[in-house]
Amino acid sequence: MAKRPLLGSESDPKLLLAEIARQNKVIEALMNRLERNAAGDYRTEFDELQTAVALKGEVRRRTAALETALRDNELITRKLRESEFKLLGVVNQPLVGISTSEEGRFTFANKKMADMFGYDVSEVIGRDVLTLVAECDRPMVAEHTRQRMSGEVPMADYTFRGLRKDGVEIDIELHGSVHNVGVRPVAVSIMLDISKRRQAERRAEGLHALLREQSLRDALTGLYNRRYLDVALEEECNRAQRDGHAFSVVMCDLDHFKLVNDRYGHQAGDDVLAIIAAVIDKRCGSAAQAFRYGGEEFLALLPGQTGAAAAGWANALRKELQTQIVNPGRDAFRITASFGVASFPEHGLCGNDLIGLADQALYQAKRGGRNQVRIADLSNGRASALQEPPLPMTAQGRR
Question: How many structural domains is the chain composed of?
Answer without folding.
Answer: 3
